[in-house]
Write a structure and sequence with these properties.
The protein is of the alpha/beta class and 142 residues long. It has a single domain, classed as Ribonuclease Inhibitor (Leucine-rich repeat, LRR (right-handed beta-alpha superhelix)), CATH 3.80.10. The protein has six helices and seven strands; from the N terminus they run αβαβαβαβαβββα. It starts with a helix and ends with a helix.
């Protein structure tokens, strides 16, 4: 991925779904070299941690699609960083991210108005996030 980032600075879409051996270092390199990314899908990249998501948020503020389903190491802090730095998000997938709590859901709802429809979050997926309680469930209307 480092080689790709070195040669392709204009990347706007990064889809590495299912690359289980993908590391934070690779995502950091991509974010550093490709700040124009708007579409990211790192679902099922189970080695990724908060550092990867925070780097993307810091370096790529134009992200509108954030796919991180089954990235079980992510915490609320990473999702909040994403919401703070990428307020134009219109799609967020954090299914099976078992460390996330209501704080992550409510943070996205408060900052990313592209997600919010008349009845709550419309394109945010937090299914099977076992730590969600009533506040998040009411926001999600799942």
């Amino acid at each position: 991925m480092q080689s790709l980032a070195d040669r392709c600075h204009g990347i706007t879409h990064a889809i590495f779904r299912g690359c289980k051996n993908r590391t934070d270092a690779a995502v950091l390199a991509l974010a550093e070299k490709c700040p124009g990314m708007t579409y990211t899908d790192f679902g099922f990249c189970s080695n990724l941690t908060d550092a990867a998501l925070v780097a993307l948020a810091d370096k790529c503020p134009g992200i509108t699609h954030a796919g991180f389903g089954c990235c079980r190491n992510l915490t609320d802090a990473a999702v909040i960083a994403l919401a703070d730095k990428c307020p134009e998000i219109m799609h967020a997938d954090f299914r099976y991210c078992s460390n996330l709590t209501d704080i992550a859901v409510l943070g996205l709802a408060a900052k990313c108005h592209g997600l919010t429809g008349l009845t709550g979050l419309t394109d945010a997926y937090f299914r099977f996030c076992d730590n969600l309680m009533d506040a998040a469930k009411a926001t999600l209307h799942e």
